[in-house]
Amino acid sequence: MGDILDLIKTRRNVKYFLPKFVSWENISRVIDAGRHAPSCGNIQNWKFIVVMNPDSKQQLAELAHQQYEIIQAPVLIVVCSELEKAERYYGVRGEKLYSIQNCAAAIQNMLLEAHSLGLATRWIGAFNDDEVKEMLNIPAEISVQAIIALGYAKEVPPKPPKFPLESLVFFGSWRNRLKDPAKYLNDIATILGRKTQASKETIMKGVDFVKEKVEEKVKDFKEKNI
Ligand SMILES: Cc1cc2nc3c(=O)[nH]c(=O)nc-3n(C[C@H](O)[C@H](O)[C@H](O)COP(=O)(O)O)c2cc1C
After folding, report:
1. Using CA atoms, how far apart are residues 110 and 129, in angstroms rounded to an integer?
2. 115 CB less than 6 Å from ligand 1?
3. 122 in ligand 1 pocket by Cβ < 6 Å?
4. Residue 46, Cβ neighbours under 10 Å: how many?
5. How far is the CA of 218 from the centre of ligand 1 (A)?
6. Higher model confidence: residue 225 or residue 173?
């Protein structure tokens, strides 16, 4: 699979995993993709805890509101955010917004790399923060952002519906929709090209009109010998 858009579109949040080992090479490739994500000021406020022990996985599944299917995944990656790092450089905005966005970018990188390796993932966001922190000895100033279950899919769910592009895009300002979005949104260069061509044609029509009028006047003057 080469095209990034193909990867993005075919990745699925997988519920059931096969009890099949994932190589360390693949685990490290997935985490490596995470660490190359963008982050505000490149602060890289993330840490990744790899959990493979069956008892620990069982406990995490319980703390994730009994999402027991993740026990079958050979690897759980707990994504942690160093909030203080973001707060130190960017204040409240850093702590409350950037730190989360940074980790979400890292998570998405990991999901896509896993998918490109033929692996499957499940993003777990619902869990008891305090209890997960206690279980994994995570310090108070760190926030747990997600648990990624990583493994081989037992079954890949069908693609859930996604909103059409034209219902999500405004042009220039809020709620300003394109008149013919389906035609346009596939290729913005074509839209701009068409608009330029339309403007050019309008201007040329104007030029022709003026030219015609001037010629009429000249002819008129000549006939009247002015
Ligand atoms: C912030 C966040 C939290 C999520 N939490 C869970 C979760 O606790 N359990 C789960 O099975 N899926 C969870 N998901 C995955 C979504 O349910 C899934 O991405 C969505 O249904 C769309 O499916 P798709 O990823 O296959 O396109 C979470 C996703 C996000 C972004």
Report:
1. 21
2. no
3. yes
4. 22
5. 75
6. 173
Could you tell me the distance, in angstroms and rounded to a whole number, from the CA of residue 15 to the centre of ligand 1?
10
pLDDT digits (tens, 9 = 90+) for 171-199: 999 999 877 766 666 666 666 666 777 88
Ligand 1, pocket-test mutation among 69, 78, 81, 124, most atoms within 8 A of CB:
124
User: Does pLDDT of 65 surpass 60?
Assistant: yes
Cβ(126) to ligand 1 under 6 A? yes
pLDDT for residue 1 = 47
Report residue 203 as tokens. Answer: 């201007």
- Ordered by start, the domain boundaries in the chain are 4-153, 163-226
- Architecture of the 4-153 domain: 3-Layer(aba) Sandwich (3.40)
In this prediction, residue 99 has a pLDDT band, given cuts at 50, 70 and 90, of very high
The residue type at 190: T
Is 38's C-beta closer than 6 angstroms to any atom of ligand 1?
no
Name residue 17's beta-bridge partners.
Answer: 153
Of the two residues 201 and 45, the one the predictor is more confident about is: 45
Q: For ligand 1, atom 15, which residue shows the shortest CA distance? A: 123
Percent of the chain residues topping a pLDDT of 90 = 77
Which among 10, 13, 63, 163 is the best mutation to test ligand 1's pocket, defined by most ligand atoms within 8 Å of the CB? Answer: 13
13 CA to centre of ligand 1 in angstroms: 6
